[in-house]
Amino acid sequence: MDVPKREWKPPVEAENRGAWGGFIGRNVGLVLGVLVLYFLFSFVTGNIFQPRYEILSVVASEDPVAPGEPLRLALKVRNDRWKEGAAYVVLVIEGETEIEGPVTPVPSREEAEVAVVARLPSGWRSGTLLLYDAFRENVRVDAKHGIPIRVGKPAIEVLAADFPPRISAGETLVIRIHASNLAGQVPVRVVPLAIFAPDTTVEGAKSLERSGRSALLGAGTDSDAMRLEARTGDLDPGPYFVSVTLTDPASGRRIGSGMYHLPIRVLPGPARTP
Questions:
Q1: How many whole angstroms separate alpha carbon 127 and alpha carbon 117?
Q2: Looking at residues 230-256, what average pLDDT do you find?
């Protein structure tokens, strides 16, 4: 008698485990795929399409303003991405103050001035402008340091510049400077500058500039203790004219009035031995 063959089937609990295992595996894969797409989307939108700013220049007047008058400082910024952005700057004067400017729109692929306006007491100092991205949780983007901030007007004047009328080429010329800030509103740190210009009768001679050490001129004071030691090794023998002025160490610009067209003669130096 033929015995009917029975088809083998796994136990019910094994079938259930297989079904649940496949279900969990499929869902874990789906969740991982969604997370990958999310992080990829976040990366693309956060790093490619989001605004990106570049500081092109600092916009700041080097002319002093009166104490309490508005002083405008700005960063010229370019947004080189296709999405419009917004930014703001913070003015930081170390040990004194921090002032935040308003949020300024920065159109896509365009430039804008992101500014702050401050009213400050008298004094000449340097500050820092910090640039922040207003669309990305106030992320700091970049900064510019050493920005001259000039509040209060000095009255700088070189009253006298004394030096010998002749000097041998290669010697160091010592210039004694009498400078004044008697009518000034603020103390000012200055750097003395001497410019040697050849007489027109000296063919082929070149001009020469020499600067000295900085010094502080207080408001309402004058000083005759300033000295400038100028090396003359690069000057050819002949007649020259010397101009002595005082400059701003932060910008290099001349401050006030100086002494000009002071004659000096450079003599041939000692012969060099081979």
A1: 13
A2: 91
